[in-house]
Structures are given as C-alpha cells and as structure tokens.
C-alpha cells in the first residue's frame, strides 16, 4: 500500500466514523426518555422556585405552568400586568403552587437592580430566559425594517442584554448551592445564516454561544445550562399560526423541550424541529440564500399569518 492509498483509506474511514457518530447522536433524540431520563423530583430537587421571563403568554406562560405542574413555585415576569394576573390565577388554581408576579419592563436600564432585590431571598432552582422579540412578523430586508434605530435597540436589549443580566442575578445562588437549571430560549433560525431575519437570528446566535460558554464554565459546579432553539411555535409573537406537524403549540413544545434538558448544551426541543434543523443545515447556502428562496419564505409567512 502506497502513501496515496493510505491517505484515501484514512480519509474514507474518518468520514464514515464522523457521519456514523452523527447518526448515533441523532438517533438518541428519538428515544429521549431512554437516553436522557429525568426523575419525577428533578425540578424540585434543583430548588424551591422557578423564574420565567416573558411569561404573560406563549412559550413563557407554558414554561411557568409546566414547571408549577412539576411542583415548583413560580416567579413570572413581564410588563403586562393583566395578563400576568391571569397566568398567576391559572397556576394557583390548577397546581396549588405559590406565584410571585413581577410587573416590569426588563428592557429598561434601571430595572434589573430592582429585579435582583425582589429575587434575592428566594431559593431559585430554575431560570427560563424566554423574553424575546421579532423585529417584524413578516420577514424583510434589514434596511426595510420599520423604525430601524429603535428596533435595533429593542432587539439587542430584549434578546441579548436581559438574558445576560438575569444570569448574572441568579447564577451566583446556583453556584453557591451547587445545583440549578438555566434554559435560554434561542431560535432555530440561529442554526444557519438567515436572510430576512438577519437581526433576530444574529441575536439568537449570541444566546446559543453565551449558553454554551456558560455551560462549559459551570457544568463542574452542578449547574445545567442549555439553549433551546425552536422553529415554528404557535404564539402571539408568531401571529398564533395554526399548529401542525412542524408548528407546535407552546404547551406541546415546552413539555417536550424539558425532556431534552440532559441532551446537550443546545437542543431544538422536539424531534420534528431537530429534523428540520438537520435538513436546513444540509441545504447548500447558495440555494438557501437565493432570491427565489427569500421570496418564497416571505410569501409562506404571509400566507400562514393570513396577510
């Protein structure tokens, strides 16, 4: 065997091993309860309280209700008082758990210190950073975004700054107790370069990298930190699109995503979104970024939103 043959055989073997490992890790997602089981007391063992931002509706509300159903008391945080009161009432009546309502706009610069004061005496075992906004419901080019200067500030404050600040507030207590869970809600749009959602997807890339970095830093401290990156979920932010095989209800998505907590520092939160992410990452960027694909995406979203 000459050197060239050896190189080709080695390269072929490496490719087979690489894709074999990818298939193996993907297959584990099909049997999540077998590979990554959670005990019934998993969440309550982390601490007495869960904190969920952006919890007045949609995914945040679903996380708050589900964690209360797991036996945790819940702090729900949003700027919409009436909606938060309704969520608190629903949690209290259906689960019997305690609920603390904090009505604040977390994107305001001076609010984080006040939030820290309100949370300082609580044994917080779970933090869900769900707060986030889209620059526009209908995908559009960056410069076509309405009120672009204001939108840039809102997206960065809401999707990036608040998440980092909430981790700063709650992570020290988890480190001291040697346990805790932080779930940072990213987006499936962060898995590829996503034109027409450029600002939003870029902000969610930060969420993923921040979460993965924190997990590497604090995993040895007994803290589980994960970015969860859904694609379509029927929520007010997405115009309450009709649920189907790809677009999940907030309740279904949250229930499945919590089962993936031990599946890595980033997951898509459901098997259908995992498959969709794999497919998107397999499409050549030249095709994905073509003008016809961008036009088709815009029309698809308009149709699904009924616009």
Number of strands: 9
Average pLDDT: 90
Order of helices and strands: HHHEHEHEHEHEHEEEHEHHH
In the CATH hierarchy, what is the superfamily? NAD(P)-binding Rossmann-like Domain
Low-confidence stretches: none
Contiguous helical run count: 12
The oligomeric status of these chains comes to: single chain
Strand arrangement within the widest β-sheet reads 3-2-1-4-5-6-9
Beta-strand percentage range: 5-15%
CATH class: Alpha Beta
| CATH 2nd-level architecture | 3-Layer(aba) Sandwich
Write the layout of secondary structure elements.
Layout: H1 3-28, H2 32-35, H3 42-46, E1 49-53, H4 58-69, E2 73-78, H5 81-95, E3 99-103, H6 111-119, E4 124-129, H7 148-177, E5 180-185, H8 198-218, E6 223-228, E7 233-234, E8 248-249, H9 250-259, E9 266-267, H10 271-282, H11 285-288, H12 291-305
Parallel strand pairs: 1-2, 1-4, 2-3, 4-5, 5-6, 6-9, 7-8
Notable features of this structure?
307 residues, alpha/beta, Rossmann fold, two-stranded parallel ribbon, 53% helix
Task: Describe the fold and architecture.
- This protein has helices at residues 3-28, 32-35, 42-46, 58-69, 81-95, 111-119, 148-177, 198-218, 250-259, 271-282, 285-288, 291-305, and strands at residues 49-53, 73-78, 99-103, 124-129, 180-185, 223-228, 233-234, 248-249, 266-267.
- The protein has one domain (36-305): Rossmann fold (3-Layer(aba) Sandwich).
- The strands form two sheets. Strands 3-2-1-4-5-6-9 form a seven-stranded parallel sheet, with helices on both faces.
- It is of the alpha/beta class.
- Helix 4 (58-69) runs parallel beside helix 5, helix 4 crosses helix 9 and helix 7 packs parallel to helix 8.
- It is built from twelve helices and nine strands.
- Helix content is 53%, strand content 13%.
């Amino acid at each position: 065997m000459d050197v060239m043959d050896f190189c080709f055989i080695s390269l072929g073997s490496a490719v087979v091993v690489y894709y074999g490992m990818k298939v193996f890790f993907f297959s584990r997602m099909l049997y999540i309860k077998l590979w990554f089981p959670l005990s019934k007391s998993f969440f309550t063992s982390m601490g007495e309280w869960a904190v969920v931002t952006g919890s007045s509706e949609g995914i945040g509300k679903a996380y708050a209700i589900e964690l209360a159903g797991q036996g945790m008391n819940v702090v729900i945080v949003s700027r919409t008082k009436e909606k938060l009161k309704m969520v608190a009432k629903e949690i209290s009546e259906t689960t019997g758990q305690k609920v603390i309502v904090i009505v604040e706009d977390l994107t305001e610069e001076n609010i984080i210190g006040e939030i820290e004061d309100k949370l300082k005496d609580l044994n917080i075992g779970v933090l869900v950073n769900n707060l986030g906004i889209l620059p526009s419901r209908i995908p559009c080019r960056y410069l076509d975004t309405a009120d672009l200067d204001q939108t840039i500030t809102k997206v960065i404050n809401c999707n990036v700054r608040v998440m980092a600040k909430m981790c700063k507030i709650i992570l020290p207590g988890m480190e001291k107790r040697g346990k805790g869970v932080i779930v940072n809600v990213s987006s499936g749009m962060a898995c590829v370069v996503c034109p027409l959602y450029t600002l939003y997807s870029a902000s969610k890339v930060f969420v993923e990298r921040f979460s993965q970095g924190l997990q590497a830093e604090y995993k040895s401290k007994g803290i589980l930190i994960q970015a969860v990156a859904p694609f379509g979920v029927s929520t007010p932010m997405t115009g309450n699109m009709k649920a189907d095989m790809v677009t999940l209800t907030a309740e279904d998505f949250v229930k499945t995503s919590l089962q993936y907590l031990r599946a890595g520092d980033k997951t898509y939160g459901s098997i259908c979104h995992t498959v969709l992410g794999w497919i998107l990452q397999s499409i050549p960027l030249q095709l994905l970024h073509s003008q016809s694909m961008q036009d088709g995406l815009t029309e698809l979203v308009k149709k699904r939103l009924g616009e």
